Amino acid sequence: xxxxxxxxxxxVPKEWNIRDAYVANxxxxxxxxxxxxxxxxxxxxxxxxxxxxLNELSSxxxxxxxxxxxIPYRTSYYNEAWGFCMQHRKFxxxxxxxxxxxxxxxxxxxxxxxxxxxxxxxxxxxxxxTTHICHPSMCNDNLSGIAVLTALAKALSTMDCHYSYRLxxxxxxxxxxxxxxxxxxxxxxxxxxxxxAGLGDRGSVSYKKSRRGNAEIDRAVAQVLSSHEHQxxxxxPYGYDERQFCxxxxxxxxxxxxxxxxxxxSEYHTSADDISFVSADSLGDSFxxxxxxxxxxxxxxxxxxxxxxxxxxxxxxGLYNQKGSDEVQQHLRLALLWVLNLSDGxxxxxxxxxxTQMPYLTILNAAETLxxxxxxxxxx
Amino acid sequence: xxxxxxxxxxxVPKEWNIRDAYVANxxxxxxxxxxxxxxxxxxxxxxxxxxxxLNELSSxxxxxxxxxxxIPYRTSYYNEAWGFCMQHRKFxxxxxxxxxxxxxxxxxxxxxxxxxxxxxxxxxxxxxxTTHICHPSMCNDNLSGIAVLTALAKALSTMDCHYSYRLxxxxxxxxxxxxxxxxxxxxxxxxxxxxxAGLGDRGSVSYKKSRRGNAEIDRAVAQVLSSHEHQxxxxxPYGYDERQFCxxxxxxxxxxxxxxxxxxxSEYHTSADDISFVSADSLGDSFxxxxxxxxxxxxxxxxxxxxxxxxxxxxxxGLYNQKGSDEVQQHLRLALLWVLNLSDGxxxxxxxxxxTQMPYLTILNAAETLxxxxxxxxxx
Amino acid sequence: xxxxxxxxxxxVPKEWNIRDAYVANxxxxxxxxxxxxxxxxxxxxxxxxxxxxLNELSSxxxxxxxxxxxIPYRTSYYNEAWGFCMQHRKFxxxxxxxxxxxxxxxxxxxxxxxxxxxxxxxxxxxxxxTTHICHPSMCNDNLSGIAVLTALAKALSTMDCHYSYRLxxxxxxxxxxxxxxxxxxxxxxxxxxxxxAGLGDRGSVSYKKSRRGNAEIDRAVAQVLSSHEHQxxxxxPYGYDERQFCxxxxxxxxxxxxxxxxxxxSEYHTSADDISFVSADSLGDSFxxxxxxxxxxxxxxxxxxxxxxxxxxxxxxGLYNQKGSDEVQQHLRLALLWVLNLSDGxxxxxxxxxxTQMPYLTILNAAETLxxxxxxxxxx
Lengths: 380, 380, 380
What we know:
The structure is a homotrimer.
Chain A: E1 6-7, E2 10-11, E3 15-24, E4 30-33, E5 48-53, H1 54-58, E6 61-62, E7 84-85, H2 88-92, E8 98-108, E9 115-119, E10 126-132, H3 139-157, E11 164-170, H4 174-182, H5 184-189, E12 190-196, E13 205-208, H6 216-225, E14 230-233, H7 242-245, E15 254-258, H8 280-299, E16 302-305, H9 326-342, E17 344-348, H10 349-356, H11 360-372, E18 376-378
Parallel strand pairs in A: 6-7, 10-11, 10-12, 12-15, 13-14
Antiparallel strand pairs in A: 1-2, 3-4, 3-8, 5-8, 9-11, 13-15, 16-17, 16-18
């Protein structure tokens, strides 16, 4: 999308590019160097090439006094400005001097780019999965989202799915607004969706509900997370791109799947959000939970008991005694009876799992067992 | 109903009759004797007349190692088999020997029999009360249900009732299925119902809700039990014949009234569920609570305040001061005011009792007092 | 309204007037004197002029043994009777004597009078505010209600209001019944209402909900009180004139605003409910909370976000950064975002305040700020 394009109330901004940036002392030594960390430059800084005193420089420097070894991440999207972000400890060590200050950047008409993966399913109804890509040099927020969504793309591409999947890798806010403004037809096909962000830290999984609060996606995630340590938060019009998907004109059933809540950990938006801050286990766990959620969405149909008057006789169909201990057998038999009892065409499998507080997979297996035995059918 | 008749997904089984059964040792002494306790025989055992070693016999013997003096109660309805149930202590005392094993039973085409009492009321709408009769040699489960339902039949036959009453004494599962399959018109007239079982043990009264969960019967029982120690359980598709009445094709407003939950006490389905396990007080208390529940159902109408604009003047009708202490008077006056206030034609007496948390009888008396004074009428 | 007029089920009673009343001993000394306290006479006493023994007098004397220095307040509206109320200590000091007993009262056809203030607003829909006036010589119950309603009349008369206001100063029960019976058209215009009583004691503010339980007035008061120590009670058909307004034929959205619940403090309906029992702070606090409630009612509209697709860009309208600390700014920004998010034409400001648990004024200010910026409009 070209810079200057109107997208709803917003305008696609100029494209920012940067080749080099540094501050050098009078001996020519770089005391701040973009090539050491790209966080050193205030994002969207306009070009600079000046000599100045420490005092003058200071008003353009951002540090974290409470974390003197960390570099903060700062942006200035809608005010033209320039600046450097650095470790507070190094800042304090700067001496009075005349500094050469260079930011070799361009802020010019260009394009807003985003990645889109579309995986057609058996149906045209879509599940929308998105992540932001605007500062991938930080690991949890936001490289982890990119990594997990990429893994999901790979996994989903090998599956035979009911839904079509649309996976979007976009800069935050303006990316989502641009996509929503320019894809009105795809928007109408979104049946469920999640914004993915912050999926690698060591906190437990969490979910922020859609504006609707009880959309099928909200209930499916709650069901999957119920057997894990987790947190569920109500919707609020703040956070990541759920803000746009859940604006009142769209009100899409899109929640946000995360681990620790953004801005609630001190590493957030600093150089300390690095590879050591995320764990492979957490990334894997996030991926596994998301696959489980998609499995619920892909199978959550309403079934109909074709033998609704009294119980069907399980014994003559070999369903009364299943494998396992007495306790397991009783549990599985109870699942069969619940599915038969509630499959009146009104209750979905998720409804049944919620009412019985049995795991969704147990309910799904019971339903498929009964369907195999010819006494349950999917309600068309 | 003849053996072999198809009733929904089930078939009426063969009729089992038994004259004698025993195990005798080589000295001709009966070490197990059906005439001592009919629990000694696995119910539905096919005929046997054999000699065999202790080892061979053992695989057909059921005992309760944790309760060595009790005889378990076992059945084999849908697998043709034979067996004996005995005290574990006596089983351990059996010596190596050649035993004569005799079960003089027949399993042949016959009839499924059940008892039905129909008490016509002023209206054709029915209240259905049922109990199982398949193992009456155990006292709480199930002779107590038979006893209390018989007492209810007697009591109801002397009353002038709004509803018609249908009382069914049936073998569990297949009895209820047979009745449901063969009485489609009566089924449509069922307005409320309860399965009665386990009414004599010393536990507190309990109720398992119908599948609907908030049917009038569910609310009426909860209202009656609220002033007693009690337990209320949600519906589940397991237990007694509520499983059949609440199958999705029927979904009748039928709950189950019990005391201790079946299978939760160790005497359940053993010879220890004998006359000493039940108490006359518990049987009487079960009966009294059931009568109270029926009284709620029989009187739970919607009334209409014929003076709905402002309060009617109670004083000029002699209703302001009633008999009793100040506190009692205030309580009765408040009941009058609540009934007047809520009798807009939408609220039943049960609705009023629930909202005010006053006893149903207080509300009923207030309503009838006001009706007597001409300022309340039953909403037709 | 003339004595004898039929008002619904009631009749306007005779008018009671009193000039003097006393009990004098044989030495001519007044031992009870109406001119010392008008509580000394049982209200509505018929005229008396007799000599009698202490014993005979005693059966007409009301005292409070537990509070021997207080004079009780007693009435006999619907039984013709006479009596005196006095300090228990003074009663015990009365000697055997022949007493002259005089009540110079009249109970004759006359008029029921009440005060009515009507303040026309921009709309004909009315807010009804009432207080009882039947025993103003007691301070909390009921002079405080008269005082606060008078102050509200004064304040409202200077304001430009959406609603019309009707303020009624009436004797309890019969006053409200008379007004309701004779103002059928005004009744249909009542959109919200409150009965005011007991507004000066040192207890926290309290509110008794209307019969509807979730009327806008009930929610508005709960919203205002939520940031103060308070109590909210469910409706019951007992208490002050809410009994009449909430009778089923009217079912008006009228609750009661009070401080301590009547009859729950021992000074209630005694001479101890005097000026020392109320505080200026409490009266002022009651007034302030009521003004807040009216402000909610006057502004609780549904707005519509005119930019409902994605968030509007706050920054370009100067709305992103507001005055105040970071925390305050974040709070105000969140209020803007919530109002934008929920203003889909369905949610009123009160709905938004309830969902977000933000103060109503914060939400109202956010709405008006956004309306000023042209991105929100009032839903017509």
